[in-house]
Design a protein that fits this description.
InterPro entries: Homeodomain-like_sf (IPR009057), HTH-type_Tx_Regulator (IPR050624), HTH_TetR (IPR001647), Tet_transcr_reg_TetR-rel_C_sf (IPR036271). The chain is mainly α and 217 residues long. The protein contains eleven helices and no strands.
Length: 217
Amino acid sequence: MDAKSLEELLYIEGEQMKMSEKQRLILNAAIEMFAEKGFASTSTSEIAKKAGVAEGTIFRHYKTKKDLLLSIVMPTVTKVVAPAFAKNFSKEVFEQDYPSYEVFIREMLNNRFEFVKKHFPVLKIFIQEAFYQEEFRNVYKQVFNEHVYDKFKHIIEHFQSTGELRDLPADTIIRTTISSIIGLIITRFLLMGEEMDEELEKERTIQFILYGVKQKR
């Protein structure tokens, strides 16, 4: 991650992460190494080498590698990236008027793709470690419930009232929509990369959300 990208992470929404220059170097190195190799496969000696500091410098601040993940990466997640993710997401996507649910899905999908592309090194850590770190999952739940859920539900209920969407529980439609988009993001950025025809798969995902897999008659 270059200096400009790191600065964007540290100053999102006007909040500055307070840390020494060595801590900044360690943060940058940890983000790059965790994103490249994963948390479990990265050693503190590798982080120290990449940061240009002694390994003992890391352990003066953090007792274990997990403490490093939680004490450096997690504050970036909880105080800066996650709230900004949800607030910007809510403002850019949910505070708009849409003529149809399909148009709404397109906007949401394209918005999240651009966000992932911009902040991929850190988001890759989130995606990888969410399966193993309960702290990460709790952050996701909190920011989603605080900034996104009610507005998402309102949009669904609106299009149900117009007859466009089936009379299913809003939570079911939310879960189906989000899981389809997240699945596409994981496939694109973690599994297939640029081998995927991104625009074609976006369109297929949108059609799947709207119509499922049943043959039209």
